[in-house]
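task queued by scheduler; priority normal; single chain, no ligands, no partner chains; default sampling; output format set to structure tokens
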Amino acid sequence: MEEAQPAGGTRQADGPLLMDVTALSQLHGALEAAGYQVIGPTVSDDAIVLSELGSAAELPFGWGVELAPGGYRIRRRSDTAAFGHSAGPQSWKQYLHPPREKMWSADRSGGQFDVSPADEPPRRMAFVGVRPCDLSAIGIQDQVLGRGDHAGSRYAARRAGVFIVAVNCTEPGATCFCTSMGTGPGAGPGYDLALTELVSDSEHRFLVDVGSQAGAEMLAQVAVTSADDGTTGLARSAVTEAADQMGRSMPAGALHGLMAGSYDAARWDDVAQRCLTCGNCTMACPTCFCTTVEDVSDLSGEHAERWQLWDSCFSVSFSYLPGGPIRSSDRSKYRQWLTHKLGTWHDQFGSSGCVGCGRCIVWCPVGIDLTEEVAALQAEAQQAEAQQAEAQQAEAQQAGGEQQ
């Protein structure tokens, strides 16, 4: 076997590389030395969560998850895989689009207020272990919060300093459906480095793909070898096979049109009887971006602050206008969320707002599955179309009989 050597910047165009599991510590050290705050998955409170990693040893080696509608449980794996788990309760959104962020503060001075913007310099962050669905979600949030009119936003400033180490999926969870959304199981564009984990009884390695010059420069400080065709094929096959192991699938068809034509569907009443309008789905979703603002002051009235907070279209106040909320029923709230996510998101941003991570299914307290809801809406629409066609055919036959 070729002796492991630093990759060097010229490796970027030479094809995939191979890295031993021990090199994860070298990569972590190189990222820290470059000034990055390294964030990745780790085990805490009986869940695999995202947190700052003090070392690569804090990764969830040997831990997997069991997922179900309204159910999440970590489990011990039979191997030592570091990334052998599906998407957890948190997404990377919390670091790029924080759930609570100060906008400005003001202090009374000489009969007037002096306003100071909260312009903290963004941290340089390295995201290690980004799933392909979450990588797509970051790309969607870039479009919504970091481009066009928002090119100078706080989000854009934070995003500019992020280094991404993606991890291709080889074992999708029971609630995953990224394949049908075109967001996985292989990582698309946007990563600096992408890893495919290969674990056997005798070896624990990673196939490494370089996606940027920054990735190549970082990998130059890590012991790697050129990947042979056999190992490359094994890794690629594992990702390809994962596409056939999805636990869920979004129904095929033009979802944008389906959502637009389902405003009066009876299915909304069915799901409204189950939905608690708690907003868990929007909080767990890696692309939901809605916010509200909150103004607070101290008891003396000398100091005031404005904060931006995550909000949800399931809250009554979200759609409040003078005279009351325009969406007060459970039916209208769920319909707004789903039709925006899968339908009008296309009109606003040119893509779907769903990446197939399945978090909304897992973290719904009553286990509502949006793939099932879409399938039911589709079936209802098809039934209505069939009935309309039958009625038109009957009218045509009747008209023909009268002419005779």
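post-processing summary
- The radius of gyration is 25 Å.
- The chain has 13 helices and 17 strands.
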